[in-house]
Design goal:
Blueprint: E1 9-17, H1 34-46, E2 53-54, E3 63-73, H2 79-89, E4 94-102, E5 112-123, E6 136-138, H3 144-151, E7 156-159, E8 173-184, E9 187-194, H4 201-213, H5 219-227, E10 243-250
Helix pairs in contact: 1-2, 3-4, 3-5
Length: about 250
């Protein structure tokens, strides 16, 4: 007898989205989410009710250029057809960039070796109507040298409890491979790569770095947030709209 498992295929998608009007990636009742939109589009395309898995659960208002999702399907559609078909049914804020067929035991989250995020700050005296949903406006001048110095203390394996919510449960140790701050004209970019991230970790990190950059706290105080973790101590939490998931990396 042929089992149900042998009848399914494992398909992965690379997804780009503007998270402005969505309540995050993960499915919620009576709230629009990225997962909900993609699952609805999959049902229209394949006739199946499919549950998808995302490599990173982005929060409400957070964007993505390289989110990776996976799902099992009985559909015989080609990978190219998944791209064109889903994009036909999806709203303009979500786009499937590419599709791949994987082995049935491929784990979207388990096999990811790192995630990459970029946080964008608009650092000038006036707001930008064009960037209001893509960048966090900071009017005060930022000391990028001090912020870059603080970034060095994020590298390595640390307990990042200070950079997540007070009600977080579970392990808070993460390994950060890269944390860099740089300026390009009016924009300041913070790029961070880690094995995985805690909820609000990047946004709380940026909030604390902006405190360093505006001389509200010094670099040593930032280091203490890393070295002496206390749940929720890092603040403020930078707004979601400046954050973008740029890539999820796998060994192969």
């Amino acid at each position: 007898m042929v089992t149900e498992k042998l009848l399914t295929r494992m398909v992965t998608l690379i997804v780009e989205y503007d998270g402005t009007r969505y309540h995050g990636f993960q499915l919620q009742t009576q709230q629009p989410t990225i997962q909900g939109e993609i699952e609805q589009a999959l049902e229209k395309l394949t006739g199946e009710r499919i549950r998808i898995v995302g490599a990173s659960r982005t929060d409400a208002g957070v964007h993505a250029k390289g989110q990776v999702i996976g799902f099992r399907t009985k559909s015989a559609l080609s990978t190219d057809r998944f791209v064109s078909g889903l994009n036909y049914y999806l709203p303009d804020a979500i786009s499937i960039k590419s599709s791949y067929e994987m082995t049935n035991n491929f784990g979207i989250r388990r096999e990811a070796i790192s995630r990459e995020y970029r946080y964008t700050i608009l650092n000038r005296s006036t707001q930008s109507p064009l960037e209001r949903y893509q960048a966090y406006w900071v009017a005060r001048s930022l000391d990028i040298v001090a912020m870059s110095s603080a970034c060095h203390f994020l590298i390595g394996k640390h307990d990042f409890a200070s950079f997540t919510k007070k009600d977080h449960t579970g392990n808070t140790v993460r390994t950060v491979f890269k944390a860099e701050m740089r300026r390009e004209k009016d924009f300041v970019f913070f790029d961070i790569v880690a094995d995985s991230f805690l909820q609000q970790q990047v946004r709380r990190t940026v909030g604390a770095l902006v405190e360093v950059g505006t001389d509200r706290i010094n670099v040593q105080t930032f280091k203490d947030l890393v070295d002496s973790p206390i749940f929720g101590k890092a603040r403020p939490t930078a707004p979601a709209h400046g954050l973008c998931l740029t890539a999820v990396n796998y060994a192969d």
